[in-house]
Amino acid sequence: ADEPLVLGIETSCDETGIGIVRGHTLLADALASSVDQHARFGGVVPEVASRAHLEAIVPTMQRALDEAKVTLADIDAIAVTSGPGLAGALLVGVAAAKGYALAADKPVYGVNHLAAHVAVDTLEHGPLPEPAIAMLVSGGHSSLLLVDDLTNGVTPLGATIDDAAGEAFDKVARLLGLGFPGGPIIDRTAREGDPASIAFPRGLTAPKDLAAHRFDFSFSGLKTAVARWVEARERAGEPVPIADVSASFQEAVCDVLTAKAIEACRTNGVQTLVIGGGVAANSRLRVLAEERAAKHGIEVRVPRPALCTDNGAMVAALGSRLVAAGVAPSRLDLPADSAMPL
Ligand code: KG4
Ligand code: ZN
């Protein structure tokens, strides 16, 4: 018999995503983004995001169904991100999922956004070896997770205590006058620069910090250090070497992220590291993670960039795993939970 056809809805931030998956196979991944509407604010504006989801949700649904050449009646289950994320944005997806589920008599699964970022890797690389360590790095989160079981056993090991990694990229790009979102621009700019030219701080790596924050991250001190360095240059009337600053900043972020991720693998006797979230698209992060993991026989799995950023496919991917594991669906009154724990 065919594996179940699962539709996933993602609206936790600024991307309206609807994906359709059968087993581990991606059939459709329709996306509408409000990123351009937030650009002039230098960050996502919750109210603007919610309105954009409302306008986009029905047409995106239609595009996904068309792309997969199926109708709503063919779908076996609907998964939706029910948290964590922006409350108003989440509500749009959850309300839509309930509406479609009720109209077409389908089970609905409320899923965790972070677990979905991990699950999406199965669409690219097949079943995830468990246990695995997952590092999720995006504009909204920076976490290290121990994944014993994707469907019901994901334990947080650490997270950022201030800015998320992507947020740091965005803020540094802004202070360098490079535009939003900053990650891809810094990634490109850094290619022309020397990553060893400026010694920026590595947050929470000093022995005294490691005791309480072994697997936590901190990027706000780094952002401030970059700002001070740039200000000092400007005060001295000297030009700011944008490429060198970008490369040195990026190196500091990637150094800490990969060092802690590999340490988490080694401490837990884990051989597989999955990296997800928008920052996983970073070219230096990929190279450094591979380099360091190889020394310890650890396999690094990073989905292609389009699957790393927020999308509907990741929600469908996790929904597909939940259905396959025989997990009971959510109740139709499932809430949106902006602070949903794992
Ligand atoms: O996962 P995502 O699309 O949305 C959130 O849940 O936040 O991640 C977006 C973040 C932004 O901060 C963006 O600057 C960052 O991911 N990003 C990157 C790169 N591409 C996107 N950061 C560093 N290097 C990149 N190539
Ligand atoms: Zn995300």
TrEMBL record:
One GO-annotated biological process of the protein: tRNA threonylcarbamoyladenosine modification
Metal-binding as a keyword of this entry, yes or no, is yes
Where is the major localization of this protein? Answer: cytoplasm
Q: Which residues form a coiled coil?
A: none
List cofactor names only: Fe(2+)
Sites binding Fe cation sit at H113, H117, D310
Domain (Gcp-like) spans 26-316
- What reaction does this enzyme carry out catalytically? L-threonylcarbamoyladenylate + adenosine(37) in tRNA = N(6)-L-threonylcarbamoyladenosine(37) in tRNA + AMP + H(+)
Gene Ontology molecular function terms on file: iron ion binding; tRNA N(6)-L-threonylcarbamoyladenine synthase activity
Cofactor mode of binding and number, as noted = Binds 1 Fe(2+) ion per subunit.
Recite the UniProt keywords alphabetically. Answer: Acyltransferase, Cytoplasm, Iron, Metal-binding, Transferase, tRNA processing
Q: Where would you find this protein in the cell?
A: Cytoplasm
Entry-linked InterPro entries: ATPase_NBD (IPR043129), Gcp-like_dom (IPR000905), KAE1/TsaD (IPR017861), TsaD (IPR022450)
Residues annotated to bind substrate? L136, V137, S138, G139, G140, D170, G183, D187, N282
A GO CC annotation recorded here is: cytoplasm
Which Pfam families does UniProt cross-reference here? TsaD
- Give the UniProt family note: Belongs to the KAE1 / TsaD family.
The family database entries (NCBIfam families) matched by this protein are listed as: gcp_kae1, T6A_TsaD_YgjD
Name under which the protein is recorded: tRNA N6-adenosine threonylcarbamoyltransferase
